[in-house]
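Sorry to interrupt, but I need a hand with the structure work. Go ahead and set the record down below:
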Amino acid sequence: MPGETIVVAGGMLASFGVLQLPQTMVVAVAGALTGDNIGYWLGRRLGRPWLERMLGKRRAGAHSSILARVDDLFTRHGGKAVLIGRFIGFLRALAPFVAGASRMPYSRFVVCNAIGATCWGICFVLLGYFLGSSWTLVERWLGRVGVVTGLVVIAATVWWLRRGLRKPPSSDDRAG
């Protein structure tokens, strides 16, 4: 079951008096923080070698430039990716793993993750709380927003990766 569905349902239950609103927010934020920290440390522990094994030796060589670009992206924009990824369904689980695999400094990850998880947890609990019994409407709109946002992110990523693959090798690449 998607995390936002559970959190919105928790907000809805708080609106009916079954749960307490402040405690529901704390649990949502704590769950988000815990899950992302586990993802980060799995990425840190399994990371690059695991990705290369999954791609296979032949494919890993062909994809090494893509992995290098992902590492570079997380070096320069990892904080934003973790923060924004919190609000996009498939990135919510992927961004912490990639941050760990890309060796994003944990101190930077934890600050960006704490901000994103806190905003996400409070917003989604309040969304469920204020919309109360209309949770099916909320779930439908969240699904649509998530799909549209996901498609935009995928298209931008494909464009960015293809643009990088079409660049001619620099003189440093040819010398080695």
